[in-house]
Every structure is written in structure tokens, then in C-alpha cells.
């Protein structure tokens, strides 16, 4: 379907020159060089009232607003049903804060679990429409994950650059979708710089983040949804409604900038009667906007070395973004405030235990900031407040719950073992032996090649060990004789010469008898076998069947 997009223009936010939106737009103003251009839509051709009622029939995803999104042909949309997230009314937390109208925009419910799915669907659809086939992005995690998923659908090759502090779980998820993962030993600002250099030298399209039209336009869809949802909640569906506050923790500030633009558009179209104030929260360890605001300055001084562990919010140099937010707050009200990592972690627990929603640390910062603004009386009890619940939990546990959240229970021996390769057991065995006698050389005798490699990786991840593999009992004995390892990791069930025989052979040879042995076996041992192992081995670890990483990688490369 072709949409009527002839009415889209770009406007320079500095000199207000208008430029036709077309495939050749280079991204800066031809008159003054300004890098931020805003999309302008003339809804004059559409009757706004008719549009608002037509919307009621459309599906609840963000493309329902395609008339105000920068795409020429809706056939080019790459979508997984993103947007249309619930606006959940808070009960317990609101009551505890003394707020009558606290609403939580649950962006965890996007396809990859954060509000970056909005940016991904709009940006990747636009790039797909332009014929871009390869893309570079710098990200602290969520943009890369969302882009990786949408690029997979669009058939676009993605190069994702991450700063060193980005949680490895996020890198892995982006890798799962087939992105090339590059981790930079530096902070987020340095990562962006390197990604830009890489893109330039390879001649690959670089995602311009906050300076791209698609990003701002994507984020503004939150405003349209909130307006429509609050209208249903508070105005009985008759009119749309802006909240008194939109609250979000920021890094570059794309979310509130886009949302602010969305509300201004709706206001100009006559869809709402008021504009929300913006509550902009930063992490105390990286709060250039908050610091500038408290000094009354419109230009922020960059933070060279962010100290927060919450890497999602680690833009040290906000550049023009802060000016845009500052101007918005001067025009329509708002507040900049920071919260420490500890305050964010404890706010995360409060939210989870009051309202049953678990969020990632960056969103914890949002709620910590909300608590402060309520305590300080900046937000009033009657205010209608919408909070952007920007991202899901992962990988929060290690930071928030600490060590003592789990009780583990041993299963009686005869019951089935469901576990995979016993990584923790292996690591603690290694550490134990390492503390007794210095372990450098490890021999793994295991006929399952994948299991052997996995064990080798687990061990090598713990330090600089010299690991040798043998895949049957006979070559295992040879290997042990020739290398005299400090530790043998042994499978029991091998064809021809099995693990029991390897043990017997070692114990019979004075030169090998004292080498510690860790047995890793998938086999349920009989009483006799247990007795036979007796005190000959230092540790016995059970492994279950495991999903094999190499097997899957092999499959994928065969499909290529
Ligand atoms: C990107 C991100 C933020 C910060 O968003 P900006 O508006 O770009 O500053 C906050 N929370 C989560 C979960 C994010 O992924
Ligand atoms: Zn200009």
C-alpha cells in the first residue's frame, strides 16, 4: 500500500529551512549545516477528527500512526507488532507515593524487551526502503539487540559496537540474531567514535542515533499512544489527553525528545489541550545534563569518565540533545534530577515488590528519580504522571539481589539429573586443586568432542591454563603419560578403553598415581561402579544432556 507522504518535509531546528524528505537526504541542513532535522507533517489534507476515529479501528501497534511516520510505502515496514504497549495504572506504588494518577508505560512488552524496539522498527524500515544493506551501530546494549532482530528480518547486515561495560548477555543476544559483535575497550562515547570511523573507512551506512529523523519519530509514537490511552482512561474516549508529567531516565535523551515532539505535534493538530512537563533523570555517575541544569546552563559540560555501573545511561557528552531538552523544559516545564546506582537498585526492588514489574537498572534510575521528585514536592499528588518503563530485567540479578537469594537443594542420588555440563562443579574443582597444588596443565579425556570443547572453554575462561584434549581412552593415557598434567578431567563412558581403565592405569603408574582426577559423567553409576571409583578420584561430577552450542553454530553455518 502506498501512503500519501507527499506532505512530509524536514525542517532545520536551527534556521527552519524546509527540505523535501527523500532518499537522498544526507542528514544536515544545506543552509546552515545543523545536524538535527525534524520531520514536519501537514495533516491539513487529513481531517484530524476523522483520523482520530479511524485510529480506533486499527491494530494496537505503532504503525497505526503511519501517516506521521517517515516511510514512503507501508509495504516496506519491518514489523513484529511493536508499540501499542499497555499503560498500566499503578496501585500499591502509587498509594505508597501518595499519587492519585501514576501510569506505567510498559515498554518491556516490545519484541526485544525495551523501548528501543520502536526505534528499530522505524529506522530499519526506513533504511530498508532506502535500499541500505549493511549498517553500523554503536550501542550500550538495547539498541543493538533491537536493531539486530529487525536487521535479521530485513536482511541487513549489522555491525554492532559495544563499550566494554555492556553486559555480556546483551552482546550474546545481539549475536544470536546474526549481528557482528565488536567490543571496544573503552566507554560509550569512545565506542561511538570508533564505530563512526569504522563505518567511514568501510563505506558502510552509520546509524546517526539521536540525529536521525527515524529515531525521534519512533520515540514520539509513545506520546501518541499515551495521548490516546489517557483519553480512554480519563476522558471517556472523547478526547485525547496529555499527562502532566512524562518521566524517563536518559542517556542521550532520545526518548523524551521524541515524546516531547509527539505531544507538540498533537497539540498543533488540536488533538490535546496541554503539554506535559518532562522529568529527566540521570545516573549520578553520569549526569552532565543534571549538572548543567542545576547551574542554569543551556550547554552541558561532557563527563569524560562516567562512574555509574549502569552503562545503558552512560552518554557522557549529550551535545545538542541537552539543549533541546533544556528548551522544552523552559517552554513547558520539567525538571532534571539524578539518582545513584544504589538508589536505582533499591527503587527496582520497591517497584518489583509493589507493582510486580521487574526492570533493568536504567529503568530503576527512572523510578528512583520519580521517588525523589515526589518527596521534593516537584510532582504533586493530583498530577497525572506517566513513567516510561523503558526496559526489562536482564541482566539485573547479580547487581540487585546479591548472593543470598537462592537456596539450593540436593536431589537424592537415584533421581534423574537434569543439569547440563556441571560448570560450577568444574570451576570449583579447578579452584580447589589450584589452591592445593599449582594447576597449569589440564588434560581432558572425553569422547564427545563437543563436550570436551565446552569443558575446555569453561576452564580457559577461568585463567591461563594449558588445556589438551584426547577423545578416547588410549590416546588419553598417551597424553597423560607424555604431558604429566596437573589435573585430569575424565569421562567414564568411552568405547574400547573406558574411564575406569584410564584410572586403573594411572594408579598403577607411580609417575601418574598422584595426579588429581575429576570424573565428569552422564552415566548413572551403579553401587559397584561407585565402589570401584572409591577414593581413586578427587571429584565426581554429573552432567546431563545439554544443548550444544557448537552443534547449533554448525547448523547455522550450513544454512548460510
Ligand atoms: C536507551 C535506554 C534508556 C535511555 O534512553 P534515551 O532516551 O536514549 O536517553 C533508558 N532505559 C533503557 C532501558 C534504554 O534502553
Ligand atoms: Zn539550518
Overview of this structure, please?
This protein has helices at 48-55, 92-97, 116-130, 142-154, 168-176, 188-202, 213-234, 254-268, 288-294, 320-332, 341-355, 361-375, 397-400, 423-436, 449-460, 473-483, 499-508, 527-533, 549-559; strands at 8-12, 18-20, 37-41, 87-89, 101-106, 134-138, 157-163, 180-184, 205-206, 245-249, 277-283, 334-339, 384-389, 441-445, 466-470, 487-490, 517-521, 539-542. It is an alpha/beta fold. It has four domains: 1-77, no CATH class; 87-110 and 216-407, Rossmann fold (3-Layer(aba) Sandwich); 115-209, 3-Layer(aba) Sandwich (Rossmann fold); 426-559, 3-Layer(aba) Sandwich (Rossmann fold), CATH 3.40.50. The strands form four sheets. It has a six-stranded mixed beta sheet, with helices on both faces. Strands 15-14-16-17-18 form a five-stranded parallel beta sheet, with helices on both faces. Strand 16 (487-490), helix 17 and strand 17 form a beta-alpha-beta unit. It is elongated. The protein starts with 7 loop residues before the first strand and ends with a helix. The chain binds pyridoxal-5'-phosphate and zinc ion. Zinc ion (ZN) is lined by residues 12, 14-15, 17, 29, 31-32, 34.
